[in-house]
Each structure stands twice: as C-alpha cells, then as structure tokens.
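chain below, 80 aa
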Amino acid sequence: MADGLAPVVNGILIASIGMSFGATTGYALNPARDFGARLAYTILPIPNKGTANWQYAWVPFIGPLIGAGLAVVFFKLVAP
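prediction:
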C-alpha cells in the first residue's frame, strides 16, 4: 500500500467501526474520551438524565489491551 494512503485507510476503519457499534457503545474507541464524558455526565446536574452506564465503562479500557495483545500474537505468527 502506498504510504500516503495509510491515513485514509485508518480513517475509513475508524468511521466504519463507529457506524457499526456507535449506537450501542457510544463510539468508545478512546478510553480517555469515554471516561471523561461519562464522569462529566455523572457529576453534572442535568435534569431528567438517564444513567451513565458504569457497568459498561470497563470495556473501553480492557478492549484495547486485549486487541493489542491479539495483534502482537498475530504479527508474531505471520511476520517472517
């Protein structure tokens, strides 16, 4: 793949993940972004607000770690 095309491919990947899982996960691809918004939503006095769904909050933290570990194992198996 051409070096100049890598950002485009990454952007398409992120956009497709967001369009696929964004409704159920809140587009939580970055743990810092997810935690900050969840914490602010919990603290701020917003009338008629729902729950911040803290039982799901661990997923954006653990998911990338598991994915990175699997990527390393896959790379070690495939790379020459």
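Residues 6-25 form the longest helix (20 residues). The chain has a mean pLDDT of 84.
thats it, cya
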